[in-house]
Amino acid sequence: GESVGLHLPTLSVQEGDNSIINCAYSNSASDYFIWYKQESGKGPQFIIDIRSNMDKRQGQRVTVLLNKTVKHLSLQIAATQPGDSAVYFCAENKGGYSTLTFGKGTMLLVSP
Amino acid sequence: EPEVTQTPSHQVTQMGQEVILRCVPISNHLYFYWYRQILGQKVEFLVSFYNNEISEKSEIFDDQFSVERPDGSNFTLKIRSTKLEDSAMYFCASSDVARYEQYFGPGTRLTVT
Question: Which position among A52, B41, B52, B73 has the lowest Cβ density within 10 Å, counted as fewest Cβ atoms?
Answer without folding.
Answer: B52
